[in-house]
Specification:
transferase; alpha+beta; histidine kinase; binds magnesium ion; binds adenosine-5'-triphosphate; Beta-Lactamase; 6-stranded antiparallel sheet; elongated; Heat Shock Protein 90; 16 strands
Length: 372
């Protein structure tokens, strides 16, 4: 069934049941223009049929009302060409609101051929808001605390005897044959490595309670971006996408800098074998985000300020993906595995939240902070 709209394209009528469908659904023609959408799609996309029919979802036609990442055009094209259904998980929809802001939603997009509806493609969106993000929870946090306490104590205890071992090896090396001297030097250099690891552990224990102030997160991000661009991330394109209308956050600027530096450094390290490596720093507002409720705060503290650090590297190594925030878990040769444990400790001390969403080609760490 079709009827001709004033704009000159064919609006299709998918028939009864379509509007009762609990999932957002749309029909596109072969050029990707919307020829039908159901009630759930109007609500979920926050767009009326009137303003949507006849237009393409991707690209400039929707202006700031809708942005889709990644673009759905290749998917639609492949379905039209291949005439078989395809899925795309984790599609991000930036949906504009009347106030000029936007909110972000995610969906798994199922695209199937719409043969009986005049060709084109039927899109079914399965919302996956937040589902793909693993949360950093309280249990992990406590485990990190006690492991760190233990490690700190050990660090302190090991340093003294180690200094003795090192001194003795230096002495032996002075009067030894060339081969023995080489071994003595190895003892010295390995002990040095242990000392620097221990110092890192001790520094970890030193992080004091955050000094919470109203701060501009963009100042922090810019500082991190500049220092990365001249230092460890020289060869990597770093893109900044900030929402200039973002209000101040309640945070400790120095500690937040340390957190972001650690995340950008990890991203840079993950990108070392990636073609056209890129890091994206993003800020935006999402008033729906809260800390998970608990006894002290049954509604959950609002955490509307979002910072994302994204890279196009290989993603978290699957074997450790669930434990990266725990101390001494590292997927890198020579990594100590303390970077993210420190990040997690600082964020927790802020009453804030950090989560990660990772797959090959795209890893995003998201920090959610309270408003000042
Ligand atoms: N952006 C990322 N992409 C892929 N893997 C990552 C990313 N960030 C962290 N990881 C993985 O998580 C592990 C833990 O990170 P973490 O910062 O805690 O330790 P590290 O970088 O190995 O050592 P350290 O930071 O103490 O020098 C890393 O070794 C790496 O395998
Ligand atoms: Mg690290």
């Amino acid at each position: 069934m079709t009827r001709r709209s004033p704009a000159g394209f064919e609006e299709v009528d998918p028939g009864p049941g379509w509007d009762a469908l609990p999932l957002p659904a749309l029909v596109l023609d072969e050029q990707g223009r919307v020829t039908a959408m159901n009630d759930a799609a109007e609500v979920w996309l926050n767009m009326s049929r009137n303003s949507t029919l006849g237009r393409t979802l991707d690209g400039d036609e929707m202006g700031t009302r809708l942005r889709i990442h990644p673009s759905l055009s290749p998917l639609v094209f492949r379905v039209v060409q291949g005439d078989e259904p395809l899925y795309q998980p984790n599609v991000r929809f930036e949906i504009g609101d009347r106030a000029g802001g936007h909110q972000e939603r995610r969906a798994l997009v199922h695209a199937g051929p719409a043969g009986e509806l005049g060709g084109g493609v039927t899109l079914l969106l399965v919302p996956q808001d937040e589902a793909g993000l693993q949360s950093q929870n309280r249990a992990v946090r406590t485990a990190a605390r006690s492991a760190i306490g233990m490690a700190e104590m050990l660090a302190h205890e090991i340093k003294n005897p180690l200094a003795g071992i090192r001194g003795a090896a230096q002495l032996i090396g002075m009067n030894a044959s060339p081969e023995d001297r080489e071994m003595a030097e190895m003892i010295v250099s390995e002990s040095k490595r242990i000392v620097s690891l221990l110092e890192q552990v001790e520094r970890f224990g030193d992080t004091s309670a955050p000094n919470l102030r109203a701060i501009n997160v963009h100042d922090v991000l810019e500082k991190v971006r500049r220092s990365a661009a001249v230092g460890f991330a020289k060869k990597i394109g770093i893109v900044a996408e900030y929402d200039p209308s973002l209000p101040d956050a309640l945070a400790d600027a120095d500690q937040l800098t340390q957190v972001c530096l650690n995340l950008v450094k990890n991203a840079a390290e993950a990108l070392k074998d990636t073609d056209r490596p890129a890091i994206r720093l993003r800020s935006f507002y999402d008033h729906t985000l809260r800390l998970p409720p608990d006894e002290t705060d049954p509604t959950g503290r609002p955490l509307p300020l979002q910072i994302e650090i994204e890279d196009n590297g290989p993603g978290l190594p699957p074997a450790i993906a669930d434990q990266i925030f725990e101390p001494f878990v590292s997927g890198r040769e020579n990594g100590t595995g303390l970077g993210l444990a420190l990040v997690s400790k600082i964020i927790t001390d802020h009453g804030a939240l950090i989560r990660v969403d990772s797959r090959p080609g795209r890893t995003v760490f998201r920090i959610s902070l309270p408003k000042a």
